[in-house]
Design goal:
The protein is mostly helical and 96 residues long. The chain has helices at residues 2-9, 11-37, 43-46, 53-71, 74-92. The longest helix is centred in the N-terminal third of the chain and has 27 residues, at 11-37. It is flat, with a radius of gyration of 23 Å.
Length: 96
């Protein structure tokens, strides 16, 4: 939608935006192919072990926390409510 809006403003701007989008996606796919599916070339990295149970527990706890806050963000929103309202009041109030 951004590229379509840019096209309405200027053709060349939309052309460069679309080209950048395509090149960025191509580079990301190339990088993922090399990093995730490529062979390990460093001996020190090849000798590393997978995560242990303690690290898996910490990682799993963080993943569950991220999912819970993604589905139910009310605890964070309630904590930030007062400071956001104060910031909005400062922005609305004229400095003159």
């Amino acid at each position: 939608m951004v590229v379509l809006s840019a096209f309405k403003a200027d053709f060349w701007l939309a052309f460069f935006a679309a080209t950048t989008l395509v090149l960025g996606a191509a580079y990301t796919l190339w990088m993922v192919k090399r990093v995730v599916f490529g062979a390990v070339k460093n001996d020190h990295v090849a000798q590393l072990s997978d995560i242990n149970a303690r690290e898996g527990l910490v990682l799993g706890s963080l993943a569950v926390l991220v999912l819970v806050l993604g589905v139910w963000p009310a605890p964070l929103v309630e904590v930030m409510h007062a400071s956001v309202n104060h910031l909005l009041q400062q922005m609305v109030t004229s400095k003159l």
